[in-house]
Specification:
Elements lengths: L4 E5 L1 E5 L6 E6 L5 E5 L4 E4 L3 E6 L5 E6 L5 E5 L5 E3 L8 E4 L5 E6 L2 E6 L4 E6 L11 E5 L4 E5 L3 E6 L4 E7 L3 E6 L5 E11 L6 E11 L4 E5 L5 E4 L5 E6 L2 E6 L10 E3 L1
Antiparallel strand pairs: 1-4, 2-3, 4-5, 6-7, 7-8, 8-9, 10-11, 11-12, 12-13, 14-15, 15-16, 16-17, 18-19, 19-20, 20-21, 22-23, 23-24, 24-25
Length: 262
């Protein structure tokens, strides 16, 4: 984002004579949500909408309409508010990384719209219930895939070929991501380790790098649970509460010790 705009709760206050301390302060009632610029000037009153998401280029905001959960797309530059068609009851929404498209899911249908609100693609899979109960969706792999999340599972969806690839239980998998260039799939598994000294167990993670057809390429032993690729796909980073590690993807298959601790 460009840090020029923010969405805030309006604040009702009056100052004491020194103009520093509050005589009275509190959130407005009813609640007022406003878009402000970096000069603290109000750009748009958004009180009729609840959850909001900025596009990666900070030119658009996706807004959920109160009560109906319809999705509206607000163009910050033009001030135009666009209602996305057939979006009532939407439960998940995501911008593509290049800010050219927006995806949303409702009634077991995934819709992809351009930034003018025109639907350019739709997918419906009611037979295998893969889209029922979605809690989140995210673009991955050069925006050619969607990572679909439910309460109990992750699924990888191929946008180009319009089909689900594979579903993973959250009891076994913590996360999955496709690399830029669509060459690799990284999956973080939940595993249990055993201490031989006292025969105690503890939960941990093992991360496996696959090619795009799920052929195993490399097992990464790092103790990290969350990973991401840099936008150029050349570096892989992993992090945990007490560590950050990175790998050079080109060298990851050639080196015995192929990571650096930051």
């Amino acid at each position: 984002s460009n840090y020029k705009y923010s969405v805030n709760n309006a604040f009702d206050y009056s100052l004491k004579s020194n103009k520093i301390d509050f005589k009275h302060s509190g959130y407005t009632s009813p609640e007022t949500i406003i878009l402000v610029n970096d000069n603290r000037e109000t750009v748009k009153n958004l009180s009729d909408y609840s959850t909001h998401y900025f596009s990666p280029d900070a030119q658009f905001i996706a807004l959920f309409k109160y009560k109906t959960s319809e999705i509206y797309l607000y163009n910050i530059t033009s001030g135009k508010m666009i209602a996305l068609p057939n979006s009532k009851g939407t439960n998940a929404v995501s911008f593509s990384s290049d800010s050219r498209n927006i995806s949303f899911c409702n009634n077991s249908i995934i819709s992809i719209a351009d930034m003018n609100g025109k639907i350019i693609n739709q997918f419906s899979y009611t037979s295998d219930r893969i889209l029922f109960g979605l809690t989140n969706l995210d673009y991955t792999g050069d925006n050619n895939y969607l990572r679909l999340e439910k309460e109990d599972s992750f699924s990888l969806f191929d946008i180009v070929h319009k089909k689900p690839i594979r579903t993973f239980s959250k009891k076994l998998v913590k996360n999955l991501v496709v690399s830029p260039g669509n060459k690799h799939i990284l999956i973080t598994y939940i595993v249990q380790y055993n201490f031989k000294d006292d025969n105690s167990n503890y939960d941990g993670n093992t991360t496996i790098l696959y090619d795009i057809n799920f052929n195993l390429e490399k097992i990464l032993y790092s103790g990290c649970s969350d990973f991401f690729f840099t936008p150029d796909g050349k570096t892989l980073a992993g992090y945990e509460d007490d560590k950050i590690m990175r790998w050079n993807v080109d060298n990851i298959f050639n080196e015995q010790k192929n990571y650096r601790s930051l």
